[in-house]
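Recall from the previous lesson that a structure prediction takes nothing but the amino acid sequence as input. Here we apply that procedure to Polygalacturonase protein from Phaseolus angularis. The sequence below is the only information supplied.
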Amino acid sequence: MAIAAVRNNIITYVTNDMHFPLSKAANVVTNFVGTIFLLALLGGYLSDSHLGSFWTMLIFGFLELFGFILLSVQAHVPQLKPTSCNLLTDGEHCVEAKGFKAAIFFVIGVISVILILGSEKVKVAECKAANGGIEYTAINCRKHSAVLTDFGGVGDGVTSNTKAFRNAISNLSHYASDGGAQLIVPPGKWLTGPFNLTSHFTLFLHNKALILASQNESEWPHLPVLPSYGRGRDAPHGRFGSLIFGTNLTDVVITGFLYILSNIIMQGLTINAPINSPNTDGIDPDSCTNVRIEDCYIVSGDDCVSIKSGWDEYGIKFAMPSQHIVIKRFTCVSPDSTMIALGSEMSGGISDVRAEDLTAINTESAIRIKTAVGRGGYVKDIFVKGMNLTTMKYVFWMTGAYKSHPDPNYDPKALPNITGINYRDVVATQVMMSARLQGISNNPFTNICISNVTIQFNEKPKKHQWNCTDVSGVTNKVTPPPCESLPEKEQLQCPFPTNSLPIESVKLKSCSTNAFF
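The prediction returns the following tokens.
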């Protein structure tokens, strides 16, 4: 409407005051409107790539004021325009504006107005972008962005988006070396099969976006056998892929099964899986270094978090440990499994895991260490503090007889080393059994420390609350009293590191992107 009003005023001015023929006046207005739309592109380029919206609008605003002042001066100063006349009654004596008089109108006045009207279109675009703008924190901000709908995504909860996710990430992977990329999932219910991530990548879900796992088995390919496993975990030829999968990646914001990754931050995730379905782990860091999981909520039919590092002789040979892992402010619901599992595939080693401020509700156990003869490897330097647990079978659970192997060729002399396991500051209610700690004969789990623990039973507690074999360590202020192999040591407080891991020192950057939903 503003452009139409200015257009009408200009055609009136150029015919009545500048004495242009009507055909020429019409061409002036046509060129004027067309140039406005072209200048909007220039304004957008300057705004996005160089000046920013504030300076672009400020400069164009000054030009607008300058242009309107010149046009007003010309309109009111007779010396700057042709002699006044009436085209209808005195047309043959009306002289068309030329020379510096026309130049004032064309070069200075109209161009200035065109620039500002072009900038007004930039302002509209900026306002729309602000309404669809996204702000978040990440390890690194991304230079390139795309929305899932750009690749044919449909968020109706019915249409499959497997191809859309895969095509989008494949396309964005080309920007890994050019500032990275992010895929924005807008509001909606996005049904999909598994898809793989890429390095230097952010998968950003709008707070009203929900990713739904497809129930169509044909959309779930079998993964190639991982080199540290030798075969599939449940079948000789691999297993179905995780919904969101990554391997050999760095600098990513993700969730799902993580294999051979480093420098990973998972923050503010909500994961819901059927509680009656096995192998629906929430987050599985496998052979990963420098991982930070915080402010996450997971409902699972299996382990909420399962830290792994390879299986038997294959994991020993591959020798890629999981280490330097931080878990904070974490909530788990898993009636048939554990909040945080270490193993059972731990043949490459698991060390320096730090977990604090944990909540488990209706969960089989809190922290479970799983291993077996033939695993080799180690689980050591595990530090846990601040657990609030409600309704579970076991608070503490360790087993050295987890019966699963990839093949009969495992080495029975490859014994795991489980040592330096520390738990403190635990409150648990509605518990069936305090602890089930079963090491390996002639290879006990050592240096176990448990302090400041209060456990209250459910209506049908076990008669013997502590079952301990082939374990050793110390305890303090633990209720009910632990087994003899974990004697009381007064004034003991189990250690928890005071230094920060490198991944904790990573300062998340404030990032933003514009997306039109």
